[in-house]
Write a structure and sequence with these properties.
The chain has 441 residues and is of the alpha+beta class. It has 12 helices and 9 strands. A hairpin with a 2-residue loop joins strand 8 and strand 9. Helix 1 packs parallel to helix 4 and helix 4 packs across helix 9.
């Protein structure tokens, strides 16, 4: 009996080697990696991936090496007449910020040229590309989480406070109009925040990365457009979050064009694996999802606490018209020529009161109200002034208030009547499914 030949097992197919990139793709990736990486490091996109309670990560845009280089560029290349201030003012579009962006572009261009010369024989950057995109997705998702949460809990654009409600529309800045209009429609603000949260979740899940980048691009296009239209000083940051979203979409543009523009079938999505083994990639996915849940919990808890504190109102909450005012015993009737007279008092926040004059100007004071003791302490906000006055407080009815005491060195007697804010059109109109005619006032 003859033996049958034993067939040897076929050799395992080796994974195909990544194809070589064109010179244009190599150079564009190197510049994108350097510029977007430097921007993300100096503008808290990457550092904020590790939020730690009660620990403040310094702003890398103003640390000594970055600051010295930026100020040198401002003085010796841009020839600015004076050094731009890097102090935090709440604006991210200061002169210093624009000079920093120019500096990052310049440094990235020079580094790209040096990198392309030194590493000219490298055919591609497949491994670096997939890792960099993974970090960019997480950093972008983190930013969208943060902005989304403070809209779901309407804190970014809070409902207009009483001082805003009595301010003439023509005195609003464009940014004030945007903040007040969105703040007065908390349902829309929550919807806008939900779209940002949706984009963040989709970016973290591997199978929905492309959809997440699409949603993020749409969301950030609207945000950037609003910042341009209403002169909101976050133009640099919002435009770069949009740029990061587009960067993530670039590899999928041919597939998207085939599907949406050319009416052709698109190849299936294949997310590049970060590791060589399936087990390691599963662990990486769990880590990303866990990080996303941690970010939601961290920002959600912080926003909820801030929102709860923001709901606190003054014991005398409301808009109070000053019906009668006497100073040092002399009655001061409201005269058209007496424009600096106090017209009304606004009790909104527990620790502050605002007085509005007939000319529309306002003056804020610190306040401590004790209804039980019938006392109200008014003080200047700046502690170095050290000025305070004790008023006696009498409230004969819910809508009437009498104050007696010194104010700015004079003995003052005030009788006030509560007039709102419930009666204001913005608060009383409400929502209507059925409207027989437009209510546009």
């Amino acid at each position: 009996m003859s033996e049958q030949p034993i067939e040897s097992a076929p050799p395992e197919a080796k994974p195909a080697e990544p194809s070589a990139w064109s010179i244009g793709r190599l150079v564009s990736f190197r510049f994108s990696f350097l510029y977007l990486g430097l921007f993300s490091l100096t503008h808290a996109v990457f550092p904020s991936l590790f939020p730690i309670p009660n620990i403040h990560i310094p702003d890398l845009a103003t640390v000594t090496p970055v600051r010295l280089v930026t100020l040198w560029v401002a003085a010796h290349i841009l020839h600015l007449p004076e050094a731009p201030s890097f102090e935090d003012t709440g604006s991210s579009d200061k002169t210093y910020d624009w000079v920093l962006i120019f500096t990052l572009v310049l440094v990235s261009a020079l580094a790209t040229a040096a990198w392309s010369i030194v590493d000219r024989r490298r055919p591609n950057h497949v491994t670096l590309d997939k890792w960099f995109r993974a970090v960019v997705r997480l950093g972008l998702a983190m930013q969208l989480f943060g902005y989304g949460i403070v809209k779901v809990f309407p804190m970014q654009m809070p409902f207009p406070h009483l001082a805003r409600l009595v301010q003439p529309l023509g005195d609003f800045s464009p940014m004030g109009i945007l903040w007040s209009s969105i703040g007065s429609a908390p349902a829309y603000e929550r919807f806008a925040g939900s779209t940002e949260l949706l984009a963040a979740f989709l970016l973290i899940i591997p199978l929905t990365e492309t959809l997440g980048a699409l949603v993020a691009s749409a969301v950030m296009t609207q945000v950037f457009g609003l910042n341009l239209s209403y002169d909101v000083p976050v133009k640099i940051f919002s435009s770069h979050l949009l740029l990061l979203s587009v960067f993530l979409l670039v590899p999928d543009l041919p597939r998207l064009a085939s599907l949406f523009l050319l009416n052709r079938p698109a190849a299936p999505f294949t997310s590049p694996a970060l590791f060589a083994t399936p087990r390691a990639n599963r662990i990486a996915t769990l880590v990303k999802v866990g990080l996303g849940l941690w970010l939601v919990s961290f920002h959600g808890y912080g926003s909820w606490r801030s929102w709860s504190q923001f709901q606190e109102r003054s014991a005398l909450f409301g808009i109070w018209d000053i019906d009668q005012l006497s100073i040092d015993g002399a009655l001061r009737p409201p005269l058209a020529t007496d424009r600096d007279r106090f017209r009304r008092a606004l009790f909104d926040f527990p620790e502050y009161v605002m007085f509005q004059r007939y000319d529309g100007s306002t003056q804020w004071y610190g306040v401590d109200i004790n209804l039980g003791a019938k006392k109200m302490v008014v003080s200047t906000i700046k502690s170095e002034d050290g000025w305070k006055a004790d008023f006696t407080l009498d409230q004969p009815s819910t809508d009437h208030l009498v104050l007696d005491g010194p104010l700015e060195g004079k003995k003052v007697h005030m009788e006030l009547t509560r007039v709102g804010p419930e009666k204001l059109e913005l608060l009383s109109r409400g929502f209507h499914w059925v409207s027989e005619e437009p209510h546009n006032r």
